[in-house]
Amino acid sequence: MDKYLDDDDTARFEAMAMPHLDAAYNLARWLTRNEHDADDLVQNAYLRAFRFAGGFRGGDARAWLLTIVRHTYYTTLRDGQAERGDVSFDEALHDQDAGGDPADIAASHDTARTVNEALARLPLAFREVLVLKEMDELSYKQIAEVTAAPIGTVMSRLSRARQMLLAYLGESK
């Protein structure tokens, strides 16, 4: 049931949701492994969140929004739009400093690329919890809420994800 949203509703939604846009994009980026698909996913998720903002009863807005991003992604997969790209995200390219030793910059880029490639190799369930914990700094409880998994499962997946990531990084040496 849609209701007409006024400027106050829009302002409340923006105040609640916009601070978490980077976290939503980060999760979308690692789920889709493609910048353009991540942009589309976040846009669709935020449209859904806006539409159903009246149903948000308080609590952790960040976890609520990341849950919507995740559900939107899985709905897209279920509807037959599988992952298309396998483009690893190079954080170093998006955080370039003007100065610095070129050798250090090159080493930093190589390290970031190696870590991103290893992270991209993780199965989705493991990559997802690792990104939520290490990059978005969510608590176990928040991750459990976002993924709809028990905290014990989250802790187990996170431990296994870290082990697999270390193994993948060891292979690249």
From TrEMBL:
One of its GO terms (molecular function) is DNA binding. It comes from the Bacteria. GO terms for biological process: DNA-templated transcription initiation. Residues 19-81 form the RNA polymerase sigma-70 region domain. It comes from Duganella flavida. Keywords: DNA-binding, Sigma factor, Transcription, Transcription regulation. Residues 115-165 form the RNA polymerase sigma factor 70 region 4 type domain. This is RNA polymerase sigma factor.
